[in-house]
Automatic annotation (TrEMBL):
GO terms for cellular component: endoplasmic reticulum membrane. The chain crosses the membrane at residues 28-47, 67-84, 118-136, 148-166, 172-194, 206-224, 236-255. One of its GO terms (molecular function) is fatty acid elongase activity. The keyword Iron-sulfur does not apply. This is Elongation of very long chain fatty acids protein. The gene is LOC118262137.
Length: 310
Protein backbone atom coordinates (compact mmCIF):
# COMPACT_ATOMS: atom_id res chain seq x y z
CA UNK A 1 0.00 0.00 0.00
CA UNK A 2 2.68 2.45 1.05
CA UNK A 3 4.80 1.51 -1.96
CA UNK A 4 1.86 2.09 -4.27
CA UNK A 5 1.23 5.55 -2.80
CA UNK A 6 4.91 6.44 -3.16
CA UNK A 7 5.04 5.28 -6.78
CA UNK A 8 1.88 7.24 -7.57
CA UNK A 9 3.36 10.36 -5.97
CA UNK A 10 6.50 9.97 -8.08
CA UNK A 11 4.38 9.51 -11.20
CA UNK A 12 2.31 12.61 -10.41
CA UNK A 13 5.46 14.61 -9.75
CA UNK A 14 6.97 13.52 -13.06
CA UNK A 15 3.72 14.45 -14.84
CA UNK A 16 3.94 17.94 -13.33
CA UNK A 17 7.55 18.25 -14.48
CA UNK A 18 6.63 17.28 -18.03
CA UNK A 19 3.53 19.47 -18.18
CA UNK A 20 4.94 22.71 -16.78
CA UNK A 21 8.63 22.36 -17.58
CA UNK A 22 10.23 24.06 -20.57
CA UNK A 23 9.87 21.63 -23.51
CA UNK A 24 13.13 22.93 -24.99
CA UNK A 25 15.24 21.61 -22.12
CA UNK A 26 13.21 18.49 -21.34
CA UNK A 27 15.15 16.16 -23.72
CA UNK A 28 18.54 17.51 -22.64
CA UNK A 29 20.99 15.53 -20.53
CA UNK A 30 19.77 15.18 -16.91
CA UNK A 31 16.79 17.48 -17.50
CA UNK A 32 13.82 15.14 -18.05
CA UNK A 33 13.62 14.28 -14.35
CA UNK A 34 15.13 15.69 -11.15
CA UNK A 35 15.96 12.24 -9.81
CA UNK A 36 19.27 11.70 -11.69
CA UNK A 37 20.53 15.02 -10.36
CA UNK A 38 19.35 14.11 -6.88
CA UNK A 39 21.17 10.77 -7.13
CA UNK A 40 24.40 12.46 -8.21
CA UNK A 41 24.16 14.93 -5.33
CA UNK A 42 23.58 12.16 -2.78
CA UNK A 43 26.48 10.18 -4.25
CA UNK A 44 28.71 13.24 -3.87
CA UNK A 45 27.76 13.52 -0.19
CA UNK A 46 28.53 9.84 0.39
CA UNK A 47 31.83 10.12 -1.46
CA UNK A 48 33.24 13.09 0.43
CA UNK A 49 31.83 12.29 3.87
CA UNK A 50 32.13 8.49 4.02
CA UNK A 51 33.88 6.72 1.15
CA UNK A 52 36.62 9.31 0.56
CA UNK A 53 37.80 9.65 4.19
CA UNK A 54 37.69 5.86 4.55
CA UNK A 55 39.83 5.49 1.40
CA UNK A 56 42.36 8.06 2.65
CA UNK A 57 42.48 6.83 6.24
CA UNK A 58 45.75 4.91 5.93
CA UNK A 59 47.18 6.83 2.99
CA UNK A 60 49.40 9.88 2.82
CA UNK A 61 47.87 13.12 1.46
CA UNK A 62 48.20 13.48 -2.28
CA UNK A 63 50.36 16.32 -3.60
CA UNK A 64 48.04 18.04 -6.07
CA UNK A 65 49.79 21.32 -6.78
CA UNK A 66 49.83 20.92 -10.57
CA UNK A 67 46.32 19.45 -10.58
CA UNK A 68 45.02 22.44 -8.62
CA UNK A 69 46.71 24.88 -10.97
CA UNK A 70 45.19 23.16 -14.00
CA UNK A 71 41.77 22.81 -12.37
CA UNK A 72 41.58 26.48 -11.45
CA UNK A 73 42.82 27.49 -14.90
CA UNK A 74 40.06 25.45 -16.53
CA UNK A 75 37.51 26.97 -14.17
CA UNK A 76 38.67 30.44 -15.21
CA UNK A 77 38.18 29.53 -18.88
CA UNK A 78 34.81 27.90 -18.19
CA UNK A 79 33.57 30.89 -16.17
CA UNK A 80 34.75 33.33 -18.84
CA UNK A 81 32.89 31.37 -21.51
CA UNK A 82 29.70 31.28 -19.43
CA UNK A 83 29.93 35.03 -18.88
CA UNK A 84 30.42 35.61 -22.59
CA UNK A 85 27.47 33.40 -23.52
CA UNK A 86 25.24 35.18 -21.00
CA UNK A 87 26.21 38.51 -22.51
CA UNK A 88 25.67 37.39 -26.09
CA UNK A 89 22.46 35.55 -25.18
CA UNK A 90 20.81 38.73 -23.99
CA UNK A 91 22.50 40.95 -21.43
CA UNK A 92 24.78 42.72 -23.90
CA UNK A 93 21.99 44.01 -26.09
CA UNK A 94 18.28 43.24 -25.81
CA UNK A 95 17.79 42.19 -22.15
CA UNK A 96 16.20 44.78 -19.86
CA UNK A 97 17.70 45.30 -16.41
CA UNK A 98 14.29 46.49 -15.21
CA UNK A 99 12.11 43.57 -16.29
CA UNK A 100 13.05 40.61 -18.44
CA UNK A 101 10.49 37.82 -18.92
CA UNK A 102 11.62 34.40 -20.08
CA UNK A 103 11.56 34.00 -23.86
CA UNK A 104 10.11 30.53 -24.45
CA UNK A 105 10.34 30.75 -28.24
CA UNK A 106 12.90 29.13 -30.54
CA UNK A 107 14.52 32.47 -31.27
CA UNK A 108 18.27 31.84 -31.75
CA UNK A 109 19.26 34.28 -29.01
CA UNK A 110 16.72 32.77 -26.62
CA UNK A 111 18.08 29.29 -27.35
CA UNK A 112 21.61 30.55 -26.79
CA UNK A 113 20.64 31.76 -23.32
CA UNK A 114 18.91 28.45 -22.58
CA UNK A 115 22.14 26.63 -23.43
CA UNK A 116 24.08 29.03 -21.18
CA UNK A 117 21.69 28.23 -18.32
CA UNK A 118 22.23 24.49 -18.77
CA UNK A 119 25.99 24.87 -18.79
CA UNK A 120 25.78 27.02 -15.65
CA UNK A 121 23.86 24.14 -14.07
CA UNK A 122 26.61 21.75 -15.22
CA UNK A 123 29.26 24.00 -13.66
CA UNK A 124 27.80 23.20 -10.25
CA UNK A 125 28.96 19.61 -10.76
CA UNK A 126 32.50 20.69 -11.66
CA UNK A 127 32.65 22.50 -8.32
CA UNK A 128 32.37 19.13 -6.58
CA UNK A 129 36.10 18.80 -7.25
CA UNK A 130 36.78 21.50 -4.67
CA UNK A 131 35.67 19.07 -1.97
CA UNK A 132 37.20 16.02 -3.61
CA UNK A 133 40.59 17.73 -3.61
CA UNK A 134 40.17 18.48 0.10
CA UNK A 135 39.58 14.78 0.77
CA UNK A 136 42.53 13.61 -1.35
CA UNK A 137 44.79 16.07 0.46
CA UNK A 138 43.31 14.98 3.83
CA UNK A 139 42.02 18.48 4.56
CA UNK A 140 39.06 16.93 6.35
CA UNK A 141 38.52 19.97 8.56
CA UNK A 142 37.55 21.89 5.39
CA UNK A 143 34.88 19.33 4.50
CA UNK A 144 32.34 20.63 6.98
CA UNK A 145 28.75 19.44 6.93
CA UNK A 146 27.52 22.78 5.66
CA UNK A 147 30.20 22.89 2.96
CA UNK A 148 28.94 19.53 1.69
CA UNK A 149 25.28 20.51 1.96
CA UNK A 150 25.94 23.73 0.05
CA UNK A 151 27.65 21.99 -2.85
CA UNK A 152 25.30 19.05 -2.73
CA UNK A 153 22.19 21.24 -2.95
CA UNK A 154 23.30 23.72 -5.61
CA UNK A 155 22.91 21.46 -8.68
CA UNK A 156 19.42 20.51 -7.55
CA UNK A 157 18.49 24.15 -6.96
CA UNK A 158 19.77 25.31 -10.34
CA UNK A 159 18.07 22.33 -12.04
CA UNK A 160 14.64 23.81 -11.29
CA UNK A 161 15.66 27.12 -12.84
CA UNK A 162 16.79 25.43 -16.06
CA UNK A 163 13.67 23.27 -16.06
CA UNK A 164 11.12 26.08 -15.66
CA UNK A 165 12.78 29.48 -16.29
CA UNK A 166 15.87 29.06 -18.51
CA UNK A 167 16.48 32.70 -19.32
CA UNK A 168 15.08 36.05 -18.38
CA UNK A 169 15.42 38.12 -15.23
CA UNK A 170 17.12 35.64 -12.90
CA UNK A 171 20.02 35.00 -15.28
CA UNK A 172 21.43 38.31 -14.02
CA UNK A 173 22.58 36.33 -11.00
CA UNK A 174 24.50 33.91 -13.21
CA UNK A 175 25.98 36.82 -15.15
CA UNK A 176 27.44 38.44 -12.05
CA UNK A 177 28.39 35.13 -10.47
CA UNK A 178 30.39 33.91 -13.45
CA UNK A 179 32.19 37.26 -13.67
CA UNK A 180 33.21 37.01 -10.02
CA UNK A 181 34.26 33.38 -10.57
CA UNK A 182 36.67 34.49 -13.31
CA UNK A 183 38.47 36.68 -10.81
CA UNK A 184 38.25 34.24 -7.89
CA UNK A 185 39.52 31.21 -9.77
CA UNK A 186 42.36 33.34 -11.14
CA UNK A 187 43.24 34.12 -7.55
CA UNK A 188 43.09 30.45 -6.55
CA UNK A 189 45.26 29.48 -9.51
CA UNK A 190 47.95 31.99 -8.58
CA UNK A 191 47.81 30.98 -4.91
CA UNK A 192 48.18 27.30 -5.81
CA UNK A 193 51.49 28.08 -7.50
CA UNK A 194 53.18 28.57 -4.13
CA UNK A 195 54.44 31.14 -1.59
CA UNK A 196 56.44 33.03 -4.20
CA UNK A 197 53.15 34.37 -5.59
CA UNK A 198 52.21 36.01 -2.29
CA UNK A 199 53.44 39.44 -3.34
CA UNK A 200 51.05 39.40 -6.31
CA UNK A 201 48.00 38.56 -4.22
CA UNK A 202 47.59 41.74 -2.19
CA UNK A 203 44.08 42.24 -3.57
CA UNK A 204 42.32 39.52 -1.54
CA UNK A 205 40.53 42.16 0.52
CA UNK A 206 39.12 43.81 -2.58
CA UNK A 207 37.93 40.48 -3.94
CA UNK A 208 35.81 40.03 -0.83
CA UNK A 209 34.45 43.55 -1.38
CA UNK A 210 33.57 42.59 -4.95
CA UNK A 211 31.64 39.61 -3.65
CA UNK A 212 29.56 41.85 -1.39
CA UNK A 213 28.91 44.29 -4.22
CA UNK A 214 27.72 41.32 -6.27
CA UNK A 215 25.10 40.46 -3.67
CA UNK A 216 23.88 44.03 -3.43
CA UNK A 217 23.45 44.13 -7.20
CA UNK A 218 21.57 40.82 -7.19
CA UNK A 219 19.16 41.76 -4.40
CA UNK A 220 18.36 45.17 -5.91
CA UNK A 221 17.87 43.66 -9.35
CA UNK A 222 15.60 40.90 -8.02
CA UNK A 223 13.49 42.86 -5.53
CA UNK A 224 12.61 45.62 -7.96
CA UNK A 225 10.10 43.20 -9.49
CA UNK A 226 8.10 43.37 -6.26
CA UNK A 227 7.23 46.98 -7.10
CA UNK A 228 6.68 46.83 -10.85
CA UNK A 229 4.61 44.65 -13.15
CA UNK A 230 6.70 42.01 -14.87
CA UNK A 231 5.80 38.69 -16.41
CA UNK A 232 8.27 36.75 -14.30
CA UNK A 233 7.51 34.25 -11.47
CA UNK A 234 7.49 35.94 -8.06
CA UNK A 235 8.70 32.74 -6.39
CA UNK A 236 12.05 33.01 -8.16
CA UNK A 237 12.24 36.71 -7.26
CA UNK A 238 11.95 35.92 -3.55
CA UNK A 239 14.27 32.92 -3.73
CA UNK A 240 17.10 34.83 -5.38
CA UNK A 241 16.58 38.09 -3.51
CA UNK A 242 16.52 36.57 -0.03
CA UNK A 243 19.58 34.47 -0.76
CA UNK A 244 21.41 37.61 -1.86
CA UNK A 245 20.46 39.38 1.39
CA UNK A 246 21.68 36.47 3.49
CA UNK A 247 24.92 36.11 1.57
CA UNK A 248 25.65 39.83 1.80
CA UNK A 249 25.44 39.88 5.60
CA UNK A 250 27.45 36.66 5.90
CA UNK A 251 30.22 38.11 3.78
CA UNK A 252 30.03 41.41 5.62
CA UNK A 253 30.59 39.51 8.86
CA UNK A 254 33.45 37.59 7.23
CA UNK A 255 34.96 40.87 6.01
CA UNK A 256 34.79 42.41 9.48
CA UNK A 257 36.38 39.34 11.09
CA UNK A 258 39.11 39.09 8.46
CA UNK A 259 40.16 42.71 7.98
CA UNK A 260 39.12 44.61 11.12
CA UNK A 261 41.58 44.81 13.99
CA UNK A 262 40.37 42.85 17.02
CA UNK A 263 39.56 44.92 20.08
CA UNK A 264 41.50 44.45 23.34
CA UNK A 265 39.29 43.65 26.29
CA UNK A 266 39.28 46.24 29.07
CA UNK A 267 40.13 45.64 32.78
CA UNK A 268 41.94 42.40 32.14
CA UNK A 269 44.10 41.17 35.04
CA UNK A 270 46.61 39.72 32.55
CA UNK A 271 48.59 41.66 29.91
CA UNK A 272 46.73 41.42 26.63
CA UNK A 273 48.09 41.07 23.14
CA UNK A 274 46.26 41.63 19.93
CA UNK A 275 46.57 38.42 17.98
CA UNK A 276 45.17 37.67 14.58
CA UNK A 277 44.79 33.93 14.37
CA UNK A 278 46.19 32.12 11.40
CA UNK A 279 43.34 31.19 9.10
CA UNK A 280 43.85 28.56 6.45
CA UNK A 281 42.27 29.00 3.05
CA UNK A 282 42.37 26.70 0.08
CA UNK A 283 40.38 26.95 -3.13
CA UNK A 284 37.80 29.17 -1.52
CA UNK A 285 37.69 27.81 2.01
CA UNK A 286 38.37 29.29 5.40
CA UNK A 287 39.34 26.94 8.19
CA UNK A 288 36.90 27.19 11.10
CA UNK A 289 34.90 29.77 9.19
CA UNK A 290 33.79 30.05 5.60
CA UNK A 291 34.11 27.02 3.38
CA UNK A 292 33.38 27.68 -0.29
CA UNK A 293 31.06 30.48 0.65
CA UNK A 294 29.40 29.37 3.88
CA UNK A 295 30.09 29.44 7.57
CA UNK A 296 29.84 26.74 10.16
CA UNK A 297 26.21 27.05 11.09
CA UNK A 298 25.01 29.25 8.25
CA UNK A 299 24.79 28.94 4.50
CA UNK A 300 26.44 31.28 2.01
CA UNK A 301 26.63 30.70 -1.69
CA UNK A 302 29.78 32.26 -3.07
CA UNK A 303 33.35 31.46 -2.12
CA UNK A 304 35.74 33.25 0.12
CA UNK A 305 39.29 33.81 -1.03
CA UNK A 306 42.59 32.37 0.02
CA UNK A 307 45.86 34.11 0.80
CA UNK A 308 48.92 33.20 -1.17
CA UNK A 309 51.09 30.33 -0.16
CA UNK A 310 48.47 28.03 1.38
Amino acid sequence: MALGIMLQAISDFQYYMDKYGDPRTNPWFLMSSPFPTLLICLSYVYLVKVLGPRFMENRKPYELKNVLILYNFLQVIFSAWLFYESMMGGWLNHYSFRCQPVDYTDNPKAIRMVHACWWYYFSKFTEFFDTIFFVLRKKFDHVSTLHVIHHGVMPMSVWFGVKFTPGGHSTFFGLLNTFVHIIMYSYYMLAAMGPHMRKYLWWKKYLTTLQMVQFVGIMVHAFQLLFIECDYPRAFVWWIGMHAVMFFFLFKDFYNQSYSKPKVRARSPQPETTEIKDITYKNGSLKNGFTNGHTNGTFARSRTVLPAGN
